[in-house]
Amino acid sequence: MSDERIRVTAEMSRTAFQRKVVSRAPANEVMDAAVAFFKERGYRSGRTGRPNQVFVMGGREGILPRVTAEILVQANVGKGKVTMVTISGFGEGLSVHLAEYAASLRVGGTRRSVDAGAGETAPTEPEG
User: Fold this and answer.
1) DSSP assignment, residue 64?
2) What is the mean pLDDT of residues 36-52?
């Protein structure tokens, strides 16, 4: 393997992001929100030919010639019939955006995170 290839592979491993998140929103709503979330941040995003899957692609970040991610959405998981979202990708900047997207799903579902714009949700304080 060439020296360049070894450096690119090491960078992909260093910036890799993988996480599973549970959402109460329907699968179609989660996928539409994911596409909008990443398009707002300058990435190409859309549904793939596979059912319940979203792609995210971007240009050069650091030494990586391009960055990619995929989001797999599984509906009606478990007793609670929740939506399981599997997020996987790599890239210095993209990993940060993937983490923001995962956090936005945890905060309050897709409606609140998309309406808030760039992840600007105010923390709620407990009453009492």
Assistant:
1) B
2) 94
